[in-house]
Design a protein that fits this description.
There is one protein chain. With 200 residues, this protein is an alpha+beta fold. The protein is built from five helices and eleven strands. β8 and β9 form a beta hairpin.
Length: 200
């Protein structure tokens, strides 16, 4: 599986209602997109939850590389490029994915997500990679078991040796360390196909 995110940082006086309207009018377009585990339409506002910026920053979890490529080379992403310019797309290989047992199977968790937390972690040069991978996977499991968690994942970019921890929560102010985002919509056409646990 692949995790993917791009960030569109907007001026301090930008009307974030424009982003809300964009998601309200277009968010449903990926509700049935093949190969997509989920897309969390994320936004943060300057001065809210400690955010220093206004930002639109969707986060994707792809079941298949074909789905991811179909999106990046398709009309939907091109529409975003036309409106905001071409953003840098961050891409991580998933080490572990977990879901809270509180939501069960199917689409229940999709409607429950109200916020997201993302934390980046640099992997130090002396780190023992097998042990580190197990620790990262265990962290995703611990996060998913916390009250209010919907799901959690840990992924890594081996080019930069950066890990990303990403979690969805059923309330607006999660007690977790990292950048806090509002979830405006969650498209989850293949969430039930996402393999749980370690990915090696």
């Amino acid at each position: 599986m692949h995790a993917l995110q791009y960030e569109i940082t907007l001026p301090a006086d930008y009307d974030m209602g424009v982003i809300r309207h964009r998601v309200e009018s277009k968010g449903h377009l990926l509700d049935q997109f093949p190969g997509l585990g989920f897309k969390a339409y994320l936004m943060r506002e300057r001065g809210r939850d400690g955010s220093p910026v206004n930002q639109y920053a969707p986060f994707y979890l792809w079941n298949t590389a074909e789905g991811m490529n179909s999106f990046l080379w398709g009309p939907g992403f091109q529409g975003l490029v036309d409106d905001f310019g071409r953003p840098t797309v961050q891409n991580w290989t998933v080490l572990a994915y977990e879901e809270s047992s509180a939501y069960g199977e199917g689409g229940a968790a999709a409607g429950a997500a109200r916020s997201a937390v993302r934390r980046r972690q640099r992997i130090p040069e002396p780190a023992r990679l097998p042990e580190l991978a197990r620790e990262l996977a265990d962290e995703a499991q611990r996060t998913a078991r916390r009250e209010g968690a919907v799901s959690a994942l840990t992924a890594i970019d081996p080019r930069t040796w950066e890990a990303v921890h990403f979690s969805l929560w059923d309330h607006e102010t999660p007690d977790a360390v990292g950048d806090v985002f509002q979830v405006l919509h969650l498209s989850a056409p293949e969430r039930e196909k996402l393999p749980r646990g370690r990915h090696w």
